[in-house]
Amino acid sequence: MQRLTARLAGRRGPHHGALTLAQRNVFVLPTRAGMLYALVLLAMLIASINYALSLGFMLTFLLGAVAVVAMLHTFRNLSALEMRAGRLEPVFAGAHAELQASLLERRGTERFALELQARTGGLVSVDIAAGAEQGIALAWPVAERGRHPLPAIRVATRFPLGLWQAWAWWHPAGSLIVYPAPERPAPPLPPSREAGQGESQAGHGDEDLAALRPYAPGDPPRRIAWKAVARSASDMLLVKQFEGAGGGELLLDWHAMPPAMAAEARLSRLAAWVLEADSQGLRWGLRLPGQLLPLDAGPAHRERCLEALALARV
To answer: HEC string of the chain?
Structure first.
């Protein structure tokens, strides 16, 4: 039944914006404990009929009424609950993606023992106070690079007695960018284009301090002149500028990889080199089949290169 309801929810497609749970998207069925409870009630009813036990009828109908009221409370524990998807950061293959979401209680009643689970894994349990908004972080593993749609999320509860299970499917719209897993350990960065035979780009051109300039977004933290900032008694950050900085420019080229190297292995090595070049504060470009990202530096350039590696068609 749960697989059937998941297919029915999937036919509606991803849901844009907030989703409010109501009768049309909340399903209720007895749990295993609930079916055993019904079997016991049936046995009690048969015994009461056979032996004409008035107190037996009373107890049977009383326990049956308790089960019916429990079904109502289980449904109300999900009904009128509003769910909103939040931030989703890119991750590397082999790690866990994490969706930031919020649950908003609009009816003015407390909600207990809510369980949220992505179809691909991950489980979060949460209680929500009356009229409150509860933030959650739902994580699930991702194994392959690329752009992946968000998985369907199952919201369920067995409150209060565990005799019934109410659930709904929430499929938020959006996608997740999964970067290639960086190679570990990765070989050293390739030599820069300006370096001579056998010379490495690492540290080249950083020996002669030319000047100090104001900090600009994207400058590596290691080049901030902290001593000069302390002497100036100013809030402005100063960055060291070296002569021959072009020696720190390199091109990460797909075609320069060993011919026998597999495509995914090349992407993993390029991802490791992008991270290493960014940590060293270098300027680098990236060449992939049918795509060239020009020389640049900084967090924005790093994200562009990693996204290009994630979406590369090789």
So the answer is: CHHHHHHHHHHCCCECCCEECCCCCCEEEECHHHHHHHHHHHHHHHHHHHHCCHHHHHHHHHHHHHHHHHHHHHHHCCCCEEEEEEEECCEECCCEEEEEEEEEECCCCCEEEEEEEECCEEEEEEEECCCCEEEEEEEEECCCCEEEECCCEEEEECCCCCCEEEEEEECECCEEEEECCCCCCCCCCCCCCCCCCCCCCCCCCCCCEEEEEECCCCCCHHHECHHHHHHHCCCCCEEEEECCHHHHEEEEEHHHCCCCCCHHHHHHHHHHHHHHHHHCCCEEEEEECCEEEEEECCHHHHHHHHHHHHHCCC
Q: Which residues of the chain have pLDDT under 50?
A: 194-207, 243-247
- The domain segmentation of the chain, as residue ranges, is 2-176, 243-311
At 205 the pLDDT is 41
- Give 144-179 pLDDT, tens digit per residue: 999 999 999 999 999 999 999 999 999 999 899 999
